[in-house]
Amino acid sequence: MQFVYGPQVVNGLAIGVAVILMALGLTIIFGLLDVINMAHGEFYALGAYLAVTLVAKGASFWLCLALVPVVMAAIGYFAERALIQRVFHSRDRHILTLLLTFGLAIIAEDAFKLAYGPNPYKPESPIAGASEVLGITLPNYRLFLIVAGAAIIVAVWLVVYRTSLGAMVRAAAFDRHMASSLGVPVEKVYAGTFAFGVALAGLSGVLLAPIYSVFPTMGKDFILMAFSVVIVGGMGSIKGAVIAGLVLTQIQSISSLYISPVWGEPLVFGIMVLFLLVRPQGLAGRLGHG
Amino acid sequence: MAEAPALRAAVDAGERTAIGAHRLLAGTFMLLALAFAASAGATGDTFFFRLATEALIFAGLAMSVDLLLGYTGLLSLGQALFFGFGAYVSGLVLKHVAPSFWAAVGITLLASLAAGLVAGIISIRARGVYFALITFGLAQVAFKVVFNTREIGGSDGIIGIPQIKVEFGLFSVDTQSPAGFFLVTLAFIMLLYAVCAYLTQTPFGRTLMAVRTNESRVAFLGYSPWRAKLAAFVAAAVVAALSGSLYPMLRGLVSPELLAFQTSGNAVIMMIIGGVGTLAGALYGSVLLTVLKSVFGTFTEHHLIIIGGLFMLSVIFFPKGLAGYALPRLERWLERRAAAGP
Amino acid sequence: MHKLKLYAAVAAVFLAGPVQAQSSTIKIGVVTPLTGTYAGIGQQVKWGIDLAVKEINDKGGILGRKVETIYEDEEANPNVAVQKAEKLFQVSKVDFLTGTVNSGSTLAVGQVAERNQRLAATTVSYSDTITGAQCSPNMFRVNAKAGMQSEALAEWLVKQKPGGTVYFLGPDYEMGRSTVAAFKEAITKRGLKTAGETYAPLDNKDYSPFFGQIRAAKPQVFYTSVAGNDTVRLFSQMSEYGLTKGMIIVGAAGTITGQNLAAVGKAAEGFVTGVGYTTEIDTPENSKFVADFKAMWKTDPDLFGVDSYGVVYFYKAAVEKAGGTDTDKVRAAMRGLEWQTPQGKKTMRAGDHQAILDMYAVKIQGGKFTIAGKVPGAAAVGPDTCTKF
């Protein structure tokens, strides 16, 4: 039995970590800013493309891992202040930010094609080879992904829940005016949080580039899965995103044994719809609230 | 309370002006369309007639999105689901059942009522962005289903949908005739517009706008927001499907891309540029976007950047769109006329 | 107000240019994806056509008239393709249309061509049905169809592994499934066996969930019809998991091309496919073509580039034979036409408008597409199944 389920579970784990990293940024941005970032996938793509550029200039993969999130954070900060802030105070904020980021996504895809051409790139995997564990083969880079991904998730959780910076963020999410009157620089916190979410997306882009390759339409890869994870986990909840990410990717991975793989994603989507109908707050609720 | 009747009269007058402004806007559109038809017909044109017909068909889709967002406050990111559904039902009826306009439209009407009801019951329990995501996902799933079902053409779609005659009893119009079918489509879409506009002026329409403004209050006032939203959803689904049903008559084919996110996205862009919450805005928005895409597409392969950029500018600086800009001016013009009148 | 002004502007744009030049140039319309997933293919199509047109114009054009090309982006969407095709026929008044990539667009454009009483050709679509069940009297195909590619590959394979077992993995859409079916038929009649088959969604990210089944089936040969970005993912992931060891990896002609070869990298080594072209074809015509193409575009031509280059010469030969651009005369001239291309001589079969050309088994060695076998055109083309004309 383990030879049938084992590989599916382990592979699902590697995919799960990838999806969780994507969903984390999304859920943090929604949890705090109440912004649905339709361009999240494009920031993921941008991170990957930046890595491609840096590698072409001779940088090592590890340098990219360190540098790209910083650059992405700057881009995210700028994007928030230049674009999102403009519609933030309007009554139709939810819809307007959704539409704005949707417009950004349209531009981004074409911009990538303009800058890098339509053909795919694939950075070399920094860790070659595969190992066999309990009869299951797993490439070493994927093992690294699982470990690194877990470390990043823990780091994010620590920052949000165990640092004063995180406390400011949660306070601003819970009650903006109160936090502001207590001296929290709310505007900066908002921009910073968006930057953080975007940096996470960019980091995912770099990490996944060696296995998923880089091309102009890659931003659409994770959209449905990431949103499903965010909703099932609960908008704004890190714990929820992790649990939902693991469970949903496992469901998709194991289901490919029984049903045609084309229906894996729709199945996950169906679960998301179910949650929306039965338990809309997801598994774990909202950032700042629990 | 001596102010009450005067207040009431003022409110009524204001409403009449608003309705009048909307009618003016829609009427102008119709006149412009007819002027276009006259000049294009004089030059014996084919392409621009068909392009305009396509713009009208997509305007119907944009109207259905506006019905949900502008009046009920629900953003649908998957309205192409019903549009494509209508196109496929119509196409299949024309090709395999009967090459009859009324059969295709009639069956599409019934089928979309059912589909809208089912999808609506699932979707409207969600609010705001959740609703947007559900509609997005539903459309994606439907796209995949159609894409992978070889019996209805699969990823290649269906070609060979016959050109038909639209029978009106005393006379008939060939769908092959560019001018003729343009006029049929114009009448069809304006009829849909008239029905939607009328709906928004009924108590039902008011309930919708109340739901949009403050949903929880509506229940306390004794109305069922759930029923109102469901009705709006089904109405929007039917409008989208009926618009879509004209597509295979124009082009002789249907393909899964009619259900794809790009189609839903385009409808949203049309609605925003035209003006949310105005219905007539969707008409102008569709024409504008169709022309922009056609013109930019000829000059550069980077038309998406330009259109995406225009869209973002519109969202930030002109969130009320073209119609939103024009309507208050039209209203003031009407008020001045009324004040200066007899 | 807006509408009238815009209409006037658009009309001015379209009518101003072409009307004056109408009878003195021959216009070829190209509806091809310049954006979206297939933009890379559209780029090769454009490069091939532009090179051919330049050469022809430098030598005096067709029947003394210069050739003009007009491009429109169809975004790999049949609905857009139909609209742009009609614009090219009606407004730009093109004499001939080409450039569609995916089979849905080709079928749709064929229908538009019929309704406009003009001719069109595809240089990329290899779905068998285009010159089979859904053939059109106004649509021609100058490239090899899936059945032909399968014949060339199967011929090579039966010599390498007679009686071997093959595992199939295809993308789950019309093209993917029919390519797998075509190859399955080709190998079965040569005595090889199927070890299993599975279909992945188009644009699938991660193929690792399929590897368990593949390993369990222990096939000697692995056939795939994925393309573009999907190929990069499949191959690099298979290589990651060590799945490529001990198996012969083969696939469709569109699986590894100039667009994704660099990204697939080392994982492409040893891959074999059946295709109508490789830059290694050793003829003076091909050497000159490759050199000219590279000089103009700084990239090697691939099958899409050479077939698109060839379609312009196909049209030229037909127009010259017909003595003009009249649709019925050109169609009659095209049927049975033989013309020279960098791939050698091609013949346009009259019965189904399918070009007959020599097919090659091509193997990727050292990052190059080397020739491993050859099947003559007549043997590869298969029976004429078109019954519509």
Which key features would you list for this structure?
heterotrimer, B: 342 residues, mainly alpha, two-stranded antiparallel sheet, 14 helices, 2 strands, globular, C: 389 residues, alpha/beta, seven-stranded mixed β-sheet, five-stranded parallel β-sheet, 13 helices, 15 strands, 43% helix
Shape type of chain A: globular
Largest protein interface? B-C, 43 and 43 residues
Measured by DSSP, the beta-strand proportion of chain A falls in under 5%
What is the average per-residue confidence, as pLDDT of chain A, rounded to a whole number? 86
What structural class results from the helix and strand content of chain A? mainly alpha
User: Structural class of the helix and strand makeup of chain C?
Assistant: alpha/beta
Gyration radius of chain A (Cα, Å) is 19 Å
The biggest beta sheet of chain A is recorded as: 2 strands, antiparallel
Total domains of chain A, how many? Answer: 1
| CA-CA gap between termini of chain C | 49 Å
Helix content of chain A: over 70%
Short description:
The complex is a heterotrimer of chains A (290), B (342) and C (389). Chain A is an all-alpha fold and 290 residues long. Chain A is 73% helix and 3% strand.
Describe what you observe in this structure.
The complex is a heterotrimer of chains A (290), B (342) and C (389). Chain A is 73% helix and 3% strand. Chain A is mostly helical and 290 residues long. Chain A has a single domain (2-123, 131-278), classed as Orthogonal Bundle (ABC transporter involved in vitamin B12 uptake, BtuC), CATH 1.10.3470. In chain A, a hairpin with a 2-residue loop joins strand 1 and strand 2. The radius of gyration of chain A is 19 Å and the shape is globular. A two-stranded antiparallel sheet of chain B has the order 1-2. Chain B is globular. Chain B is built from 14 helices and 2 strands. In chain B, helix 2 (47-72) crosses helix 11 (261-274) and helix 7 (203-213) packs across helix 9 (225-245). In chain B, a hairpin with a 4-residue loop joins strand 1 and strand 2. Chain B has a domain at 25-257. Chain B is an all-alpha fold. Chain C is α/β, with parallel strands linked by helices. Chain C has helices at 2-21, 39-58, 78-90, 103-115, 146-160, 174-188, 208-217, 228-240, 261-264, 284-297, 303-322, 327-334, 377-380, and strands spanning 25-32, 66-73, 96-98, 119-122, 139-141, 165-171, 193-200, 221-224, 248-251, 272-275, 338-341, 344-348, 355-356, 359-365, 368-375. Chain C has a 7-stranded mixed β-sheet with strand order 7-6-8-9-10-14-15, sandwiched between helices. In chain C, strands 2-1-3-4-5 form a 5-stranded parallel β-sheet, sandwiched between helices. In chain C, strand 3, helix 4 (103-115) and strand 4 (119-122) form a beta-alpha-beta unit. Chain C is globular. Chains in contact: A-B, A-C, B-C. At the B-C interface, helix 1, helix 2 and helix 12 of B face helix 1, helix 3, helix 4 and helix 6 of C.
